[in-house]
Amino acid sequence: MTTPLLPRLPVPALQVPTLAHGTFDLATDAPSTFSVVVFYRGLHCPICAKYLLELGRLMADYEQRGVKVVALSSDGQERAQLMADKVNSPSLRFGYNLPLATAREWGLYTSAGRGQTSIGIEEPAVFSEPAVYLVRPDGSLYYGAVQTMPFARPHFDELLSAIDFAVAKDYPARGEYTGSV
């Protein structure tokens, strides 16, 4: 069972190898505004490839705002490289070998593989479903969108606008209330 992360509280540790940018360690990433952590399903997911293409196209916009971005999955290095080749965005960090236990700590849903996808690529035996998180430089959660399916994800251009608003208005993270209702 997944447990949602709470805004304004520290997120779990996250450290994974990347294809071309050394080891990604959220604790030492040091963005000036936010880290965007994009969990994707893996190479087998054609929707993920399209989604990451959008992100790759906007990388300069994120970098101009002091935002650091990483896209990661539980795929191994070879499959992660194939996805990175599809996306063709050298500034987008691709993490791989995400332990499924870590995915669960982050509140991600997991699915059992069901054979080949519509693009003829075998699904892993078990993999995590997508999520997008904004993490403040102090390691606390600002925003999270966790999916049970690959469909209807947050748009990265809208996320840029949200970041602009949050920074300009010093808007607090919401969804933090855990008292009785």
CATH class: Alpha Beta
In whole angstroms, how far apart are the ends? 23 Å
Helix content: 25-40%
Percent strand: 15-25%
The total of beta strands comes to: 9
Gross geometry? globular
Structural class comes to alpha/beta
Number of domains: 1
Annotation field: number of helices: 5
Features:
single chain; 181 residues; alpha/beta; 5-stranded mixed β-sheet; globular
Describe the model.
- The chain has 181 residues and is an alpha/beta fold.
- It is built from five helices and nine strands, in the order βββααβαβαββββα.
- It has a single domain (15-169), classed as Glutaredoxin.
- Helix content is 27%, strand content 21%.
- It starts with 14 loop residues before the first strand and ends in a 12-residue tail after the last helix.
Could you give the topology of this structure?
Layout: E1 15-17, E2 23-25, E3 34-39, H1 46-57, H2 59-64, E4 67-72, H3 77-87, E5 93-95, H4 100-105, E6 110-112, E7 126-128, E8 131-135, E9 141-146, H5 156-169
Parallel strand pairs: 3-4, 4-5
Antiparallel strand pairs: 1-2, 3-8, 6-7, 8-9
Give a concise summary.
The chain has helices at 46-57, 59-64, 77-87, 100-105, 156-169, and strands at 15-17, 23-25, 34-39, 67-72, 93-95, 110-112, 126-128, 131-135, 141-146. The protein is an alpha/beta fold and 181 residues long.
